[in-house]
Design a protein that fits this description.
Helices cover about 75% and strands about 0% of the residues. The protein is an all-alpha fold. The chain has a single domain (about 5-165), classed as Up-down Bundle (Ferritin). Pfam families: Ferritin. GO terms for molecular function: ferric iron binding; ferrous iron binding; ferroxidase activity; identical protein binding.
Length: about 170
C-alpha cells in the first residue's frame, strides 16, 4: 500500500512526465519550422518516451491500489535562441526530472516502501541514459556551431532514431 505522501508524489510525477512530453512537442515544433526533420524526429521519439513513462507510473499506482489524480499541464517554453539553446534547456529539464525521481526514491526509503523503491530503480537508470543523450547532443552542437554541413549530418543521424517501448511496458510489469 502506498503512503499518501508517496501516492501524491507519484501522481505529480505523472503530470511532470506529461508536461515533459508537452515541452518536447514545443521543441519538435521548433525543428519542424526549420525543416530539420531529423531533429524533429528526435523529439517525436522523446515525446513517445515521456508519455510511456507517464503510463508506467499510472499503471503502477493502480497495481498498488492507489487512485490516479490528474492535474492541469503547464504551458511549456516555446521560443529558443538556437538549436544549442534548445538542447541546453532540454538537458536542464532532464536534470530536473532526475531530481524528481531521486526525491521519489527518498520518499520510498523513508516509507520503507521496498516495492516502490524497486519500481523506481528503472527510472533512476533511465535518467542516467536521458541525461547522457542530451549532454552528448549539447556537446556536439557546441562543437558544430554555425557550420551547416555538420548540422545536416547530425540531422541525418537523428532521423534514424526510433521509439522502443520501455521495458516495464514491454514486459507487462507496469
Amino acid at each position: 500500500m502506498l503512503s499518501s505522501k508517496m501516492l501524491d508524489a507519484l501522481n505529480k510525477q505523472i503530470n511532470y512526465e506529461i508536461f515533459s512530453a508537452y515541452l518536447y512537442v514545443s521543441m519538435e515544433n521548433y525543428f519542424q519550422e526549420k525543416n530539420l526533420e531529423g531533429f524533429a524526429n528526435f523529439f517525436k521519439v522523446q515525446i513517445q518516451e515521456e508519455l510511456a513513462h507517464a503510463r508506467i507510473f499510472y499503471e503502477y499506482i493502480y497495481r498498488m491500489g492507489g487512485q490516479v489524480v490528474l492535474y492541469p499541464i503547464n504551458k511549456p517554453e516555446v521560443s529558443f535562441d538556437s538549436s544549442l539553446d534548445l538542447f541546453e534547456k532540454a538537458l536542464k529539464h532532464e536534470k530536473s526530472v532526475t531530481e524528481r525521481i531521486y526525491k521519489l526514491v527518498d520518499i520510498a526509503i523513508d516509507d520503507k516502501d521496498h516495492a516502490t523503491n524497486s519500481f523506481l530503480q528503472w527510472f533512476v537508470n533511465e535518467q542516467v541514459e536521458e541525461e547522457e543523450n542530451f549532454k552528448r547532443l549539447v556537446d556536439k552542437l557546441g562543437f558544430i556551431g554555425d557550420k551547416v554541413q555538420p548540422m545536416f549530418m547530425l540531422n541525418a543521424e537523428l532521423a534514424q532514431r526510433v521509439f522502443v517501448l520501455p521495458s516495464p511496458l514491454a514486459q507487462g510489469q507496469q
